[in-house]
Fold:
Amino acid sequence: METVDATIVFLPRFTTLVGPGEFFTLPLDVSRYAGAQFQVFLGGLSNGSFTVYLEESLDADTWVLGPATPEGVVLGAGETRFFSYGFRLRWFRLKVKLLGGTDSLATCWAEGLLRGGGGGVWALPKRETPAGSG
Structure:
């Protein structure tokens, strides 16, 4: 069965993160999708800035940064950043790290589209259907 584009909400409008540390979205099985196009927004009522990391995993346990974004991307207050990302591994998530002291506060959201097509480098190649066996 072929996949189609689907909307995705990583962080709902409006999500508030409080305090120092790292925050993670739920791991998403992206094996049926080729990539994602999405935007991340950091609201104007934030204390400081934050860094967003695009992470991938084969097993949803050990996470690595993808080659398209080998470093975190820093967003300042009132900033929106657009991403176009091709999946290589089976699992995908966002990690947000607040930059600031113990009084860190960020209002944000992240949403977009998952692009159909399926398969990263880990996926098995599609089998060809012999002619006349529709």
